[in-house]
Amino acid sequence: MDLWEMEMTSKVKALNHGAKKSTFADLLQPKSMDLSLLPIPAMRGDFPSIRIPEVGFLIGMERYKFNLIGRLDLMKVKLTIARTEAINKWNLTGNCQFIPLGKGYFTILLDNEADKLRIWGGGPWHIEGQLLPATMWTPNFDINKQKNTHAMVWVKFPGLGTKYWEEDVIMSMARTVGNPA
C-alpha cells in the first residue's frame, strides 16, 4: 500500500463516520503483487544498486503533478484541523488531501490544475492564526534542505504622527527592518 492508498483510506474513513473503521493492521495487510515483475537487485562494487521501475516512477510523477507544498507549526495546530479549515477557505472543485512530510511540511495533494492555481495564486492563507505558505511541488523536494529565508512580521510604530502616514514614508521605515513586499 502506498501513501496515496493510505491517505484515500483516511479520507473515506472521515466521510463514513458510521461505517466500520479499519485498523492499522488492516491497512498494512499485504496486497497481491507479482514479485517477478520487480527488477532484480544488483551490486555496484560493494554497494547494492537499486533500480526503480519506470512505470511506477511515471505513475508517481503523474499523481503528484498538481501538488503544492505547505508548512505550518504542527505543534500548535493538528493537520486534520488545518486541512478542514483550508479546504473550507479554498472552495475547491476536486479532491484534496494533506500528507505529512515532517518538520511541519506537508504535501497538498490535488487532482486538478484549477485548484492548484487557486491555492497558489490566492491568499495569503491563514490557518488557526498561522500563515500557510503554499509553494510548488518539485519531484526532489527534501524537507532537510529547506531554508527559511523569509518571515512575515508585524511592525508597530507607536506614537507615529499622522504627517508620516503616507505609503512611501511608512514603506521607507519598514525597509529599515526588512523587505516590505
TrEMBL record:
Pfam name, any one: DUF4283
Domain DUF4283, chain residue ranges per copy: 62-144
InterPro entries xrefs: At4g02000-like, DUF4283
Protein name per Swiss-Prot or TrEMBL: DUF4283 domain-containing protein
Organism: Kingdonia uniflora
Lineage start: Eukaryota, Viridiplantae, Streptophyta, Embryophyta, Tracheophyta
